[in-house]
Amino acid sequence: MIVVPTAPGAHYIGDALAWTGAALASRWQYHRWPAEARRLADTTRPGYFVALGLGALIGAWLFGSANTLRAMIAAPGHSIAGALAGGIFGVEVWKWRHDVRRSTGGAFVLPICVGMIVGRFGCLFAGLSDFTYGTPTRLPWAVDLGDGIGRHPVELYEAAAMAAFLAFYLHGRIRHARWAAAHGFHAMIIIYAGQRFAWEFLKPYPPVIGPLNIFHLLMMGLIAYGILWWRRGDTDETRPPG
Fold first, then answer.
1. Model pTM?
2. Which residues pair with residue 151 across a beta bridge?
3. What confidence tens digit (pLDDT) does each residue in 156-188 have?
4. Is residue 208 within a helix (H) or strand (E), and if so which, with residue range?
């Protein structure tokens, strides 16, 4: 069992580092593939980013808090999964109202992945106070977050899964693979939701339907969203950016 030093404030440090990492990733991406940023700017308006921000904020608070309602003690919280779903909802409503039919998510794949990977370390070092810890296990890589119980390091499972996808995605972008340019965002949503669905079985969250908790249901919705968009054959990013 691996003893992990924890502190409640580590979550906020992790959030700050995640935002910083995402910003740096965006900057690098802008210089590497400037055409992508130009397409996003040509397709959207300032209201797009307002809808994105508000949707992400509401989704993060709503799902992060709703997840505790069936527990013994309900408490407000925030969730990256909820932020992702809320941001998507806000953007899709904006696009519907402005008759934008193209996918606009390609520019966000790299920063979102970097933010998720870095942010999960903040969750891990926040310990039990973060409510993102795993269920007990006797596996040799179990972590002790301060209560003497070995637990699945689910935060690291998620970080590793998204890091693997990010490496595969960047390889595809550098090699000008069509799927990475045209459907990178949809692939990210499917992979994120799929791996998150699996790890949810290793978290002590209260179930809502059978063995499924609220995030299981949310991930099922995100997987359906990603597959639907992919099958629509969106033409926004059919050519790799220069």
1. 0.89
2. 136, 143
3. 999 999 999 999 999 999 999 999 989 999 999
4. strand 207-209
